Amino acid sequence: MPGRLFLTKLARGLLTVWLIVTLTFVALNLSGDPIEALVGDQAPAEVIAHYREKFGLDRPLWQQYVSYVSGIAQGDFGLSLSDQRPAIELIAAALPRTLRLGLTAFVLGLLLGVGLGIVAALNRNRAIDRFVMSFAVLGFSLPNFFLGILLILLFSLHWRLLPSSGDQTIWHLILPAVTLGTHFAGTFARFTRSAMLEVLSKQYVVAARAKGVPRPRRVLWHALPNAAIPIITIIGLKLGDLVAGSIIVETVFAVPGVGRLLVNAVTSRDFALVQAILIMTSITMVLANLAVDAIYALIDPRMRAARSES
C-alpha cells in the first residue's frame, strides 16, 4: 500500500474513533445521571454530591469531555462506576472469553461459508445451489437470540446433550459458537458464490478448461485467488465485528465476556466502561479495514503496479 494512501486511511480511522468517542460521550450524558443509577434515587443528596465529586461529574460537561479525551490519549479510560476498578482492567479480564467464542465462530463460519459458496457456484441453478442459498439467507437473516434459544431448547432441554450457559469447558462453547458462526457462514457463502460466479465466466478460466486443466486446479489456482478480493472485504468487516456480534450471543448463553459486560454497563449507566468497550470495538474495526487494504496491496497486481508507478 502506498505510504500516502496508508496515512490517509489511518487519518480517517483516527477521525472515526474520535467521532465515536464524542458521540458516545454526548449520548451517555444525555441518558441520565449515572450516580442515581449507582446509589439509587432515594439516596441522600449529600451522598449523591459526594459521588459526583469523586468521579468528576460535578464539573461542566466540556471539562469532563476534555479530561476524558486527554485521559484516553494517555491510556487512561477511567474508573468503572459500579466496580470501582479501571475500565480497561475489567475489559482485559473479559476479553479472552469473547475472543475464544468469536474466533471459534469466525473460523467455523469462514470454512463452512467459503466451502458452501464454492460448491454453490460450481453447481449454479441446481438443487444443491438452491439449498446452499436457502441456508445462507436463513443464516444471516435469522436473529442470533432466536437461533440461540432454539438450540438451547433442542440440545440442552429436550435432548440434554450440551450445556446451555457458561464457558467452563469446550462443550459450553459449542452452542454459542454455532449460533454466531451460522451468521458468519451465511454471509460468507453469499459473497463467495457471487465472486466465484463472476470469475468462472472469465476467459482465462474458460481457456483453462479448454486446455484440459483438472477442475480442482481450475477452482483453487485460477478462480479462487481472483475471487479473493470481495471475499477478503467481507472477511475484514466481519472480523472487526467480533465483539459487537457477540453481545447478544453472550447474553443468551450467559458467557461472561465483553458483550455481556457491555450490556450490564449500559443498564447501570457505567459511562467509563461503555465508552472503553465502544472505543475498543471501533479500533478493532479500523485495524481490520487497514489489514484488508494491506492484503489488497499484496494480492492485487493493479495496486502493486500503482505503487511502483508512484
UniProtKB/TrEMBL annotation:
Domain ABC transmembrane type-1: 95-296
Intracellular or extracellular location(s): Cell membrane
Protein's name in the database: Peptide/nickel transport system permease protein
Alphabetical list of InterPro entries matching this protein: BPD_transp_1_N, MetI-like, MetI-like_sf
Membrane-topology descriptor: Multi-pass membrane protein
Organism: Bosea robiniae
Keyword Repressor tagged: no
UniProt similarity note: Belongs to the binding-protein-dependent transport system permease family.
Record field: transmembrane: 12-30, 103-123, 135-157, 169-189, 219-237, 243-263, 275-299
Residues of the signal peptide: none
Entry keyword set: Cell membrane, Membrane, Transmembrane, Transmembrane helix, Transport
Keyword presence, Transcription regulation: no
Main subcellular location: membrane
